[in-house]
Amino acid sequence: METVWLILLVLMIATYIVLDGFDLGVGVLHLLIARDRSEQKQIMQSIAPVWDGNEVWLIAAGGTMMMAFPGFLSSMFSGFYLPLTMVVWLLIFRAISIELPHYLSDSLWIHFWNMMLFVASGLLIIILGAAMANIYRGVPLDAKGSFFEPLWTNFRIGQQTGILDWYTILSGVTSATFLLHHGALWLVAKTDGRVQQHARQAAAWLWFGTIGLTVIILIASWFVQPLARTSFSETPWKIILPLAAVLSLLVSGYLRWKNKNMPAFLCSGLFIYFVIFTGAAAIYPNILPGLNPEYHLTIYNTSPGPEKLTTTLYWWIPGILLVGVYFTILFRSLPAVISASSEEDH
Amino acid sequence: MIDSLLLHRVQFGFTASFHYLFPQLTMGLALLIFILKCIGLKGNLWADVAARFWLKIFGLTFLMGVVTGIPLEFQFGTNWAQLVKSTGSILGQTLAMEGIFAFFLESTFLYLLIFGEKKLGKRMHCLVSCLLFLGTWLSGYFIICTNAFLQHPVGYQIGEDGVYHLTSIWALLSNPWAIKQYLHTMTGSVITGSFTMASIAAFHLLKQQHQEVSRRYLTIAVLVGFPASIIAAMPTGDWEAKQVQQHQPVKFAAMEGHFHTEDGAGLIILGQPNLQEMKIDNPIIIPKALSFLTHDSWNARVKGLTEYDRDLWPDNIELLYFSYHIMAGLGTLFIALMGVSLLLVLKEKLHTSRLVLWLLMLSLPFPFIANTAGWFTAEIGRQPWLIYNLMKTADGASNNISQGNVMFTLLGFMGLYLLLSVLYFFLVTRIISRGPELLNQPESETEGAA
């Protein structure tokens, strides 16, 4: 039962990253692609109606994590106290940067908030990658299952880790590349004209970066976490996950080349799902490895027990089906293609 | 050196109080906007114009509610890790439900509600405003349930390792404490919504702008605000006081400023608690009223604070006492002001009664203060318990975070929220100064030159 909830939780977190990932990616790209105010609005219209719903996945995943693995959430959140508080601040800046321009008319003000959106989105996607890498790499857990990490130490992995070391920074850069690629594909799928053309070029370059960094991060991850080596040698079928990730990425590139824009975007989403599942499978059944192997937090020692988790499924499954309905309505309310000239009419 | 527990508490208290300034307005407005949209369906153009104007304010306020709400969810884990570790599987239920059942609903329809009037058409737009209303009120219920578990825990079992296990999700969701608390809280929120509407309408009427629309929606605000002000006191306030008296007698004695056990205890209206001498200085008392209100008998015995072990007293009795009395005093004022306004509405004189319009306009901050003071009463009165009679607040805080870090984030939140307040006031003032009548087209977004 714990395994079922782990899969559901990873699924929710990955859904958050896939969905909020594209609007964070767009939050960075808009400043680089848009040439004038109408293109700017065209880009923002592709994310303004959906970013809030996408972000709710973070809250829903947090709530699910709290009820399924309270020991994991309490240890991780208090241990990453400073970076998580900063994430909260950045999420605030990101949200108001998207929304306040609706209420403003002065072009300097609007430009200011656009730049804020660029900074906040950019930092968020880097931190997201670094956070994932911290969980994967492991933290200095003590016998009570708690820890506190400094922001950085000597940038090496070892017994005195900081939140930033070469591996987590690499992961931050990787996640930025993945999500910019993902965001660019969203723009390719949802816009037309000059914006689409530039997004397509950006996606092409970012696709090469994504391939390169995928290979690098897979190799690095193999060496960073000894649990991964045991895990993959004991259950070799898990190798399907990273292979599926690479395959999705290649298919995504091919589809974009063939001008099948929406399928290319969806494949990029699939790619992100597989990458995250690869990481989770590599450390399974641990959920937050300790630097000292005795203190690993596992899905068993952080959850309230199987029978409690079973009853929760009775409301959780209908709830998520309902969310599926909401998201169908939400994404259908977006125009199929957003043009720079159609801005008056949405 | 400041105790890091105090900083954890101040940070949560500050961020939660600041946050709740916004949802109390949006939950109240969601109902009022839905009412306006229904009136608009019957062909009343003014109601559509008023709804459009209030949707602008609603959208901005909702955004503030969203961005200040996320830090609260995070703080459970960052600042109250011990609480989550032992009760996460229970508190997480209602928090996850809030996300899945309420937030997804709200986020799906919010943008359509605010920017989609033209596209959706009248009926659909009215329906969407109803869905938003349901979403916001549903989210309120889940969060009250979460709080009710702390106030009056039900449906749990404590394991040998001290971890709490949920025995019944149904018991958690139908916690009798939650139901009464919810009714009282939501009534408070409707008061905030209707007073805010009445206040802005009064402002425009006094300035002699947008009179046609303002006069009409002022009537709606009063027609909703008067019953809400009554219900906040009777029956919901009364229920709330009785359940506190029954389940949390220490909180009750402290908030009433009732130090010594008495037969036929009086109700203290004014006066300052003096903890050195265990009495109220300069009291104005209604004799025997406290006994009557709590036990329906003028001579019943009401237990005083001194009956209880001092370790179980809330640690800030003065603040608790003042909060409760400010809430109750303002509640009385709301009934009086809305009562007078209703009489004038019935005589069709309200829009010309300058004195009452002035009073309505100036009363804008009071419902916000009353709601905040109400939550101060509930939460400070719960101390020293985090989960009533089960877990002390000191045992729930994260124990691996040094006080300097908490001080840093607390100051960061204060600075950031100051910035948010400035932005909110700047933008909301712009919307108000443009007024409803300039918005007589269902526009999509504010255009550059507008």
Mean pLDDT of chain A: 88
Note the beta-strand portion of chain A.
under 5%
Q: Which residues of chain B form runs of ≥5 with pLDDT under 50?
A: 443-450
What sort of overall outline of chain B do the alpha carbons produce when their principal axes are compared?
globular
Radius of gyration of chain B: 23 Å
**What is the domain total for the residues of chain A?**
1
- Put simply, the count of helices of chain A is 12
Round the mean pLDDT of chain B to the nearest integer and report it: 89
Note the run of SSEs of chain A as H and E.
Answer: HHHHHHHHHHHEEH
Question: Which overall shape of chain A is indicated by the principal axes computed on the Cα atoms?
Answer: globular
Biggest beta sheet summary of chain B: 2 strands, antiparallel
Q: Count of DSSP helices of chain B?
A: 15
Question: How much helix is in the residues of chain B?
Answer: over 70%
Query: Which pair of chains has the greatest number of interface residues, and how are they split between the two chains?
Result: A-B, 70 and 71 residues
Quaternary organization: heterodimer
Content of β-strand of chain B: 5-15%
Main sheet: strand order of chain B: 1-2
Structural class determined from secondary elements of chain A = mainly alpha
Write a concise synopsis of the structure shown.
Chain A has 346 residues and is mainly alpha-helical.
Please describe the structure with a list of short key phrases separated by commas or semicolons.
heterodimer; A: 346 residues; mainly alpha; two-stranded antiparallel sheet; 12 helices; globular; disordered C terminus; B: 450 residues; 2 domains; two-stranded antiparallel ribbon; 15 helices; 8 strands
